[in-house]
């Protein structure tokens, strides 16, 4: 059955599931932690500019993460899934051609993000509660970051292309080296040194764009090298709608889910704005930990996309499901451990970014309430990635919409009924629980295969997970 397959593809189809997932996840978790560290490094140094700068960055951050999660998680997942399924079905020529289709998609979406935030940024950040110096800082940072949106899209799309072949090491190496470069570059451009003038918050954005430009070049050089499984040569540059559709049918639906996730954060930011700039900064800083979980789970989810996609392409449905539940269990343990640690010890995290009393109070409230529920977020997110591999995203999208509804309506009701900031955060926590349970129950009930026979009890769902 596996004769003629590339060894990496054969591994995804035949090797023991948990050891294989862990072996592929380790470098990928490192790359995602490093990529998240890039944002944290920038936040740390911007925090030295004061609370208004930190609040301004908090206003822009959900939109930056929307771009990151759309390019790396949603459309990136569609790219990796399409390539994995093509390789699993032994459609090697299509896999090569998909590289060019991924590049065209990245260029198009990058331009859209640039134009949307250049012309609509001020309106959006004002709607989210930005005023005065915080809004001014948000606009400076936003204009610089989104000037280079194409670089972010190209970097994440090329990384997804490589991960779709089961190769997690190359994106990991490129990202880690880039972050090491970013550590001195970010403070240099923010504060200046010698003949180099300090650019303030704009310097942090510019440093980030230099990181993505260098990383994009490195990934492209790898794809053109003899070591690459794929061959994106000019002879394969023949754009075909069926290949665009293969990416977009997963990526666009995934983008709806990503928008819902970031809307939840954006709504919570706006609701926090009722309590002042300190509350916005505190929530934005604390919520960065939730955003940090996204790349952590993606570190596990990316190999899961490759394994599930390859197995589905080869017709191995049962193995795809076993891999999915193994990934869900690992994600729950990982994210719940982080959440409990944050709930028990919130101040060490918050003090990394500032010491304003209002910021610390709001951030501590959030982590106390929401941190212990992070495990449900991890389960929902990793099942979203697995569903990308399967090319079946309806229920992950519905789960995310349910999260958005609970977070938005619940937070609004909390304010209306005098629940205060703690009530707003409680709504966010309940929303995470709904998110994880809806997606897990649907997949356990057979949603990938055209049926949803909901497990009658929680025990039934847990039994299916244990059988993995």
UniProtKB/TrEMBL annotation:
Keywords from the named record: Cell membrane, Membrane, Transmembrane, Transmembrane helix, Transport
InterPro entries from the UniProt entry: MATE_fam, MdtK-like, Membrane_Transporter-Flippase
Signal peptide (residue range): none
Pfam family, any one: MatE
Membrane topology term: Multi-pass membrane protein
Key word Transport present: yes
Localization, UniProt: Cell inner membrane
Transmembrane segment boundaries: 21-41, 53-86, 98-121, 141-162, 174-193, 199-223, 247-271, 291-311, 323-345, 365-386, 393-415, 421-449
KW Transferase (keyword) present: no
NCBIfam families: matE (TIGR00797)
PANTHER family from the UniProt entry: MULTIDRUG RESISTANCE PROTEIN YPNP-RELATED
Annotated protein name in UniProt: MATE family efflux transporter
């Amino acid at each position: 059955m596996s004769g003629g397959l590339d060894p990496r593809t054969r591994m995804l189809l035949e090797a023991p599931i948990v050891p294989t997932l862990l072996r592929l996840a380790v470098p990928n978790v490192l790359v995602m932690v490093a990529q998240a560290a890039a944002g944290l490094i920038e936040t740390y140094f911007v925090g030295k500019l004061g609370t208004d700068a930190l609040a301004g960055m908090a206003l822009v951050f959900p939109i930056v993460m929307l771009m990151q999660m759309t390019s790396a998680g949603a459309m990136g997942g569609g790219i990796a899934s399409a390539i994995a399924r093509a390789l699993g079905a032994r459609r090697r020529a299509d896999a090569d051609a998909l590289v060019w289709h991924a590049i065209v998609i990245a260029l198009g979406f990058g331009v859209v993000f640039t134009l949307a935030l250049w012309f609509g940024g001020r309106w959006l950040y004002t709607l989210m509660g930005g005023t005065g110096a915080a809004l001014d800082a948000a606009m400076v940072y936003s204009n610089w970051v989104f000037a280079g949106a194409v670089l972010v899209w190209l970097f994440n799309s090329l990384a997804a292309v490589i991960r779709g072949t089961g190769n997690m090491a190359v994106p990991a190496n490129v990202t880690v080296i880039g972050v090491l470069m970013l550590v001195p570059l970010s403070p240099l451009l923010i504060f200046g040194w010698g003949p180099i003038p300090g650019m303030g918050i704009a310097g942090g954005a510019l440093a980030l764009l230099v990181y993505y430009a260098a990383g994009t070049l490195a990934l492209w050089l790898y794809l053109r090298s003899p070591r690459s499984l794929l061959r994106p040569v000019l002879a394969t540059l023949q754009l075909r709608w069926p290949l665009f559709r293969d990416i977009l049918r997963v990526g666009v639906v995934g983008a709806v889910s990503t928008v819902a996730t970031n809307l939840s954060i954006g709504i919570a930011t706006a609701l926090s704005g009722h309590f002042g700039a300190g509350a916005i900064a505190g929530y934005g800083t604390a919520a960065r930990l939730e955003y940090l979980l996204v790349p952590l789970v993606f570190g596990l989810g990316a190999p899961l996309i490759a394994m599930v996609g390859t197995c589905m392409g080869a017709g191995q449905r049962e193995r795809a499901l076993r891999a999915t539940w193994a990934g869900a269990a690992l994600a729950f343990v990982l994210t719940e451990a982080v959440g409990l640690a944050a709930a028990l010890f919130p101040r060490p995290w918050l003090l990394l970014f500032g010491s304003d009393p209002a910021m610390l109070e709001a951030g501590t409230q959030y982590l106390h309430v929401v941190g212990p529920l992070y495990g449900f977020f991890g389960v929902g997110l990793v099942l979203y990635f697995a569903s990308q591999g399967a090319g079946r995203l309806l229920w992950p999208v519905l789960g995310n919409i349910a999260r958005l509804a609970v977070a938005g309506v619940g937070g609004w009701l909390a304010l209306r009924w005098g629940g205060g900031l703690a009530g707003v955060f409680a709504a966010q926590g309940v929303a995470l629980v709904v998110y994880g349970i809806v997606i897990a129950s649907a997949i356990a009930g057979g949603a990938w295969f055209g049926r949803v026979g909901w497990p009658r009890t929680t025990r039934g769902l847990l039994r299916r997970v244990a059988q993995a």
